[in-house]
Amino acid sequence: MAGLGGPGDTIISMKQRGFGYIEIVIVLAVVAAAGYLLMQYFNSTAKTVEKLQQDRPLARTKLAADQATLTTVQGLVRSYQAEKGQFPPDKATVVGLLAGPPRFQCPGNDFEYDPATGALGLTITDDSRC
Length: 130
What we know:
Shape: rod-shaped
Number of helices: 4
C-alpha cells in the first residue's frame, strides 16, 4: 500500500483542505470595507443631487424670464382690450399681436389664454420642470 501513511499523503490532504478561517475572515473584511465605501459614495452622490435640485437657480431664472414674457403678452392683451373694447377672441389672435411667437426659456413651456377674462397663464409653473 504505497499511498497510505507516506509523505505524499500529507501534501494531498493539505491541497484538498480548502480555505481556512483566516482567509475567509480576510475576504469578508475586504468585502465589508468595499461595501461601506460604496455606500458612502452613493449617499454623498444622492445628497449632492438633492442639493442641486433644491438650489436650481438657473431653473428659477428661466421661469422668471418666462413670467416676464407672459407679463409683456398680458400688456398687449390689455392694450387690445382698451382699443377694441373686448379681449382677443382666441390664442391665435394673441400670438398675432406679437412680432413672432413668444420664446419661452423653459423647454416645452407655453401660455394658456382665457378669452372670456383675458387671463394668461404659463403651462409650466414649477421651476423643477425647467
